[in-house]
């Protein structure tokens, strides 16, 4: 299978595409449609449209599709499992060109499921979560409503139909593709539900494309005709004394817990940059001091956790700007970085753009949604290992696991036992 993945942020593009790298397919994530992706079987592009207007997001998405889609290539529109961004208008822009949209945002391994066309997060309605209230308090979280608001005619695929006879399911989807329905919203509560959907839709010749999170992508990557290698995890050869920089722009509770575990278990320093410094930028009296402190850590070869602080003036809409200025503080010293771990898609993109890294060859997945890769080319020839992770995503162990990978380190036995137990409990809770 050759596949084009269109995502609206960098960490989303990577966590969706990484499953195909694990299946042995050459997989590239790019920040711009103009960058050379070589002969990669799977290309994921970050259109960076989450903060754009509805019309701009649709236009950028369609441009990426027209520029990158190759003959015979399938299309996967990656969306956030909690429906953030302009995804409905982006799907609408693609639909008239790509056929029936198979909409399945569920990611059961992370607690995101769909039932009766609505997203549940760990069993609770999406609209009751802090993430939704923080960014979309005035909007409906109903998938049907969002798609219809973008001008699409929709229908629902229930669990009973999905779990019924496979031939009947295939026939139903073909019928939908030949009707006036433009988006089919799929209920899914388990990985097996998504696996069934992947198997049936991958074998259909009807015009359709997938719309989903990393959950459905993993099941497509696991299909027998996709698998081409064992998907082993390459060892990261960090330059001697070259430090790991863990860059955290996300202010989510998940990220805070991940930072706490990293600090508790790793030999890593920490700097928390006040938002007031970033808002004012180079004109702030303390800007040079913060830049110097960051440089001192990295030049000494010391690993560093660098975070954006939070204050009463915090506004989710300023995330991209704060991330860009955080990257500006790091840029003069980036040549000293041996490995970069970036949490939050905006943060990762800002850092890579600041240092001239346009695309990554994905190599392996450290844990679900935590992708590791290497720059294909850079402005100055510096190619450190790069890990990306969505901000409100992953286990508490995720950043520590990324740090271990970058340092070729083995988790101490007393920690490993607890991590296995916690992962098992989380998996049970998410099922």
Automatic annotation (TrEMBL):
InterPro entries reported for this sequence: 4-carb_acid_sugar_kinase_N, 4-carb_acid_sugar_kinase_N_sf, NBD_C, NBD_C_sf
Example GO molecular function: kinase activity
Sorted UniProt keywords: ATP-binding, Carbohydrate metabolism, Kinase, Nucleotide-binding, Transferase
Gene3D superfamilies in alphabetical order: Four-carbon acid sugar kinase, nucleotide binding domain (3.40.980.20), Putative sugar-binding, N-terminal domain (3.40.50.10840)
Ranges of residues in domain Four-carbon acid sugar kinase N-terminal: 3-220
Cell membrane keyword on record: no
Sequence ranges assigned to domain Four-carbon acid sugar kinase nucleotide binding in this UniProt record: 245-399
Keyword Nucleotide-binding belongs to the record: yes
Homology family: Belongs to the four-carbon acid sugar kinase family.
Protein name stated in the entry: Uncharacterized conserved protein YgbK, DUF1537 family
Organism: Pseudomonas abietaniphila
């Amino acid at each position: 299978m050759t596949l084009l993945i269109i995502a609206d942020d960098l960490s989303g593009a990577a966590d969706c595409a990484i499953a195909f790298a694990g299946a042995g397919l050459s997989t590239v994530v790019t920040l711009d449609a103009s960058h050379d992706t070589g002969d990669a079987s799977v290309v994921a592009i970050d259109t960076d449209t989450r903060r754009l207007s509805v019309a701009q997001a649709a236009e950028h998405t369609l441009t990426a599709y027209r520029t990158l889609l190759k003959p015979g290539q399938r299309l996967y529109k990656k969306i956030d499992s909690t429906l953030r961004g302009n995804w409905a208008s982006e799907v609408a822009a693609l639909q008239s060109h790509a056929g029936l949209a198979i909409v399945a945002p569920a990611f059961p391994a992370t607690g995101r499921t769909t039932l009766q066309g609505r997203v549940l997060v760990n069993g609770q309605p999406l609209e009751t979560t802090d993430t939704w209230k923080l960014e979309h308090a005035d909007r409906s979280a109903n998938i049907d409503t969002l798609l219809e608001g973008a001008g699409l005619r929709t229908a629902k695929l229930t669990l009973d139909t999905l779990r019924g006879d496979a031939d009947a399911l295939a026939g139903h989807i073909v019928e939908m593709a030949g009707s006036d329905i433009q988006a089919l919203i799929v209920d899914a509560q388990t990985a097996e539900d998504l696996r069934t959907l992947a198997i049936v839709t991958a074998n259909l010749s009807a015009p359709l494309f997938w719309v989903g999170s990393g959950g459905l992508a993993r099941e497509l990557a696991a299909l027998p005709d996709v698998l081409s290698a064992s998907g082993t995890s390459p060892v990261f050869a960090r330059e001697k004394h070259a430090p790991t920089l863990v860059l955290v722009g996300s202010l989510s509770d998940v990220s805070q817990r991940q930072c706490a575990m990293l600090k508790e278990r790793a030999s890593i320093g920490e700097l928390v940059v006040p938002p007031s410094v970033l808002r004012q930028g180079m004109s702030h009296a303390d800007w040079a001091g913060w830049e110097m402190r960051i440089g001192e850590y990295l030049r000494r070869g010391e690993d560093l956790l660098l975070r954006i602080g939070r204050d009463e003036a915090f506004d989710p809409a300023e995330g991209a700007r704060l991330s860009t200025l955080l990257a500006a503080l790091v840029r003069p010293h980036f040549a000293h970085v041996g490995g970069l771990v970036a949490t939050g898609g905006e943060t990762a993109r800002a850092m890579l753009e600041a240092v001239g890294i346009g695309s990554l060859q994905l190599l392996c997945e450290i844990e679900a949604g935590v992708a590791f890769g290497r720059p294909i080319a850079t402005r100055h020839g510096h190619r450190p290992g790069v890990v990306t992770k969505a901000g409100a995503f992953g286990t508490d162990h995720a950043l520590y696991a990324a740090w271990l990978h970058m340092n070729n380190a083995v988790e101490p036995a007393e920690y490993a036992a607890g991590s296995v137990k916690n992962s098992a409990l989380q998996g049970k809770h998410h099922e």
